[in-house]
Amino acid sequence: MEYRKLGNSGLKVSELSFGSWVTFVNQLNEKNAMDCMSYAYEQGVNFFDNAEAYASGESEILMGNILKKLNWNRDTYIVSSKVFWGGDLPTQRGLSKKHIHDACNAALKRLKVDYLDLFFCHRPDPETPIIETVYAMNDLLHQGKIMYWGTSEWSAEEIHEAFLCSEKYNLRPPSMEQPQYNILFRERFEKEYRNIFKKYKIGSTIWSPLASGLLTGKYNESIPKKSRFKVKGYEWLAESINDVDFTKIKKIVDLSKKINIKPSQLAILWCLKNKNVSTVIIGASKLSQLKENLKSTDYSQLITDDIINEINNY
Fold it and tell me: CA distances (Å), 205 to each of 16, 27, 131, 232, in order?
């Protein structure tokens, strides 16, 4: 496993990390979840991603139980949470100072840790001034409850404003952004964030490298009932699919056969070739999937500039 610096910070994250989004609770039991986390850790994965919104907190409870049972040394792994969707009441959502503090304390309790390595603003909050959010995150930094804070799916303009606020009031700016990035969805990461990466050297912990499973080669023109596209609350995933996506998917599958690797491995390696990617978050509904995805880095030498250019022209 290779390790990359998280942007301008001194923290080094494994180039592949383990995410719990959707599959961790809805499609895994505790034994399988523990098997996956144990295997990932043994293979050098040091970053385990979570959020208050994932299964309404149950995902963090499950991960916390597993961390307690595995009893890894706390200085050997990185764990994250995200704040925005904590509940249905007005005080349980968004990026107000109150909700940020409440969400952090709740995540610490669920995950059974004394501090979070990474704490993300899960989405931008147009109802809360960015300066309030920046101050709240800095409060948590000073209290030792979090080590680094970041954003997720913020616009480049919003990230820029967070940096301006931090500079003006001598506060710590965000260290990382967590955007969706894969062969099918790349516009924001490659174009909108271009100047953000260049100017601020912000790190990135990208999610959905396989486009929620579309780039595994399992889907042709329909989505199975047991897939994550059918999970309650995530119907928007299916709505994002169109004919162009499936055309690209077929090309990826054909290319992966040509170089004798899995489509999922090709998709992950394509992401890793981008120098602005700090880590690629991968998930799995079973251990065999995780093993296949983690094995991607064994084939990095196959992904030449010609292969990258061919994919980029799809």
Answer: 9, 23, 23, 25
pTM (whole model) above 0.85 = yes
Count of domains for the chain: 1
Tokens for 297, please give them: 């880095």
Report pLDDT digits (tens) over 38-95.
Answer: 999 999 999 999 999 998 999 999 999 999 999 999 999 999 999 999 999 999 999 9
> pLDDT tier at 222 (50, 70, 90 boundaries)?
low
Let me know if residue 82 belongs to a domain: yes
Is 54 assigned a catalytic role? Answer: yes
Residues 40, 9 contacting (CB under 8 angstroms): no
CB atoms within 10 A of CB 105: 12
CATH of the domain at 110: 3.20.20.100
Backbone region of residue 22 per phi and psi (left: phi > 0; alpha: psi in -120 to 50; beta: other values):
left
Q: Is 53 helix (H, G, I), strand (E, B) or coil?
A: coil
In which element (H, E) is residue 233 found? none
Of these residues, 54, 181, 193, 219, which one is catalytic?
Answer: 54
Q: Which DSSP letter does residue 83 get?
A: E
The tens digit of pLDDT for each residue in 138-150 reads 999 999 999 999 9
Please tell me the distance from the alpha carbon of residue 212 to that of residue 89, in angstroms, as a whole number: 29
Does residue 222 lie within any of the structural domains? no
Tell me the DSSP string of 115-183.
-EEEEEE-S--TTS-HHHHHHHHHHHHHHTSEEEEEESS--HHHHHHHHHHHHHTT-PPP-EE--B-SS
Residue 87 lies in a domain: yes
Beta bridge partners of 18: 48, 282
